[in-house]
Amino acid sequence: MSIPSGTSTTKATDAAPEHFLQDKLALSGMHCAACIQLIEFRVRQIPGIHAFVINPATHRAEVQWDAAQTGLSQIIQAIVQLGYGALPANQSPDEFERQQNKLAIWRIFVAGFAMMQVMMYAFPAYLVPVPTADGDLTPDLDKLLKIASMVLAIPVVGFSALPFFQSAWRDIKNRHIGMDVPVSLGILLTFFASVWATYQGGAVYFDSAIMFVFLLLGARWIEQKVQKRTGAALKILTQLQPLIARVLPGFPQKKDVLEKDASQLLEGEVVLVVPGAQIPADGIVVEGCSECDESLMTGESLAIPKAVGDTVIAGAVNMSGKLVVRATQVGQQTRLASLIGMMERAAAEKPAIVLLADKHASRFLLIIMLVALLAGIAWASIDPSRALWIAISVIVVTCPCALSLATPGVMAAAIGLMAQHGLLLKSGKAIQGLAEATHFVFDKTGTLTAGRMQVAECRDLTSSVLARQLAFRLASESAHPVSKAIANYLSGWQGQGVHLQLQNVREVAGAGIEAELNGVIFRLGQPVYATQALPAPFVLPPELTGKSVTVLADQEQVHLILLLDDVMRDDAPQLIQSLQKSGKQVMLLSGDAEDAVQNLAALCGIKDARARMSPLDKHNVVKALQTNGARVVMVGDGMNDGPVLSIADVSIAMGQGAAISQTRSDLLLMSNRLNDLMFGLSVSEKAFRLIRENLMWAIVYNLIAIPAAVVGWLEPWHAALGMSLSSLLVVLNALRLYLLPRPAFPLTDE
């Protein structure tokens, strides 16, 4: 079996040797955790396989292998031989899925039609359980109805139930007990025992076998639809990866366009992005001006202006003008590819409470089959006519479907909901961590504040209109964040300032900017730089010492003193209040000055705020909290937050933060909206509660159903109905997550 055309492989991650390759596969035909375990077990036995992990939410697998020992075609062939479908992830399995869905509907139709007919045939027998020659149902008519029921059951067993038999046979061949083994056993035993009773006398349960098949097929079809919905956000992201790149090999001398596969794009190549097209790689705009929709990464619905020198991300959509972009990160190195990988790994991870149930799923099946055997033996001495049917009821009623389905649907729904609001999970375990958190620890700059400077106070020492006009003009000449804040503050003087004829404008990096006006040199910048031409040393007022200050001065005097401060996020007080109302303890740990930290803490309502904290100090505070039993969520932004993020129970990094803080975090707040964090907390708490409810229901159901079947209180059709409804209830319960109220956000410029 050869690799289909269009497939591309990439070098493995840093965890694997350089000569290892990695790729992703789209799988089909899986129904439960047992299917996943079987595929993973089989593929990992192939020589040269370094890693193989299946995401149960998206049915995608990530594989790493040694190219010297095996190839992608051998891996795909091994999966196909197990009876499952496998394609490279860049080839859509939609057509295969449509065919399978159509076939599944036909199987359900055949089983449903037969069930309605057989129920009518079985109804007289239930009314007259012991037909006699003098009764309403004669023996000949009773046998005729049984034969008719058997004829109707044959296509159900031979066609509708075929997927169960194929899956069971595959499991047995691979020495694995999956969910479909007891299902198939129950169907076959019920059918052939009823065939025997049709000719030898006794009760038949063709109706139960057909109902079991119909209900189980229907439940699985609904499960697949629900699973497709809950995993929609992850699937959309995987489909957002650009396919085509328009390369400009001769840029800037020539602008001939050469189309190539986006996955084959090389770092440093220049690409043309036309309006409406996706950007094929992370890069820098070298020509053109436009707006880009980056909502897939940031959750921000407004298009973001892009001009020469601005960065763009792969997968974003160019909205208006043409852009020429130089690629800086390509293929699996782009932010989009990293994001998809993070979310898929997160969806594959499970909270600790679930791991125990999954670990013992196969053992549970063996125990149930043993219980069914013992129940049959026991009833053989009590009432031989009921022994087989009770054993069948035990097998049918207890199926680990509910246990297998307890987590994937909820996890996929939670990750998708968070992603829609700009909160991206890198670790699925963070769901349980957020739900059980007792303390939220925040950094200040870039976290509770926007990391954007603003003018808090302007002191005009000369009361000169010209000074404000000149300060605006000088600030407008620089792209520095402080200059932008000053220009924004003095924007009211824009009309008058534009007429000033400045000469010899010069910016000094890290110091300020200067220009000459009418033979006089003015400087705007740090006090030491701006006042160095004064005849006497300039001394700042004591209350401004240690704060961020910008000065406008000439050779004779200081005209303006501007005090700058960071901007508190508008939603910071609301977040803190919401956390405190929900019973969480909130702390502020910052390296800033005492006054700035305490002022922000007072505005937000934080009682425990600590200033001038080094990275080690923050690390020690969180460690002490954990020692006392606290479950700590750390929200940070800067490089100095890396150490404390790495030890927190759940670490959250801002999307605008330093790369090191993002790599050490469990979640990324790409939207930079703090209210999204509160929504994420609500989603996590609800998701973890639903997982526990699902697991509890599965356990309680089995504790009730097994004894009821053993003592003979359940007929086979009762068992079939109970098992199917149990699985369906677990799946539908996951959809309750979508009932959470969504936050509404005002439009901001952040």
From TrEMBL:
InterPro entries: ATPase_P-typ_cyto_dom_N, ATPase_P-typ_P_site, ATPase_P-typ_TM_dom_sf, ATPase_P-typ_transduc_dom_A_sf, ATPase_P-type_domA, HAD-like_sf, HAD_sf, HMA_dom
NCBIfam families: ATPase-IB1_Cu, ATPase-IB_hvy, ATPase_P-type
Organism whose genome encodes this protein: Undibacterium curvum
Family matches, as Pfam families: E1-E2_ATPase (PF00122), HMA (PF00403), Hydrolase (PF00702)
Database matches in SUPFAM superfamilies: Calcium ATPase, transduction domain A (SSF81653), Calcium ATPase, transmembrane domain M (SSF81665), HAD-like (SSF56784), HMA, heavy metal-associated domain (SSF55008)
Transmembrane segments: 104-127, 147-165, 177-197, 203-222, 364-382, 388-419, 695-714, 720-739
The protein's name in its UniProt record: Cation-translocating P-type ATPase
Location within or outside the cell: Cell membrane
Similarity comment: family membership: Belongs to the cation transport ATPase (P-type) (TC 3.A.3) family. Type IB subfamily.
UniProt entry tagged with the keyword Nuclease: no
The HMA domain, residue ranges: 21-87
UniProt KW keywords: ATP-binding, Cell membrane, Ion transport, Magnesium, Membrane, Metal-binding, Nucleotide-binding, Phosphoprotein, Translocase, Transmembrane, Transmembrane helix, Transport
Major subcellular location class: membrane
Membrane topology qualifier: Multi-pass membrane protein
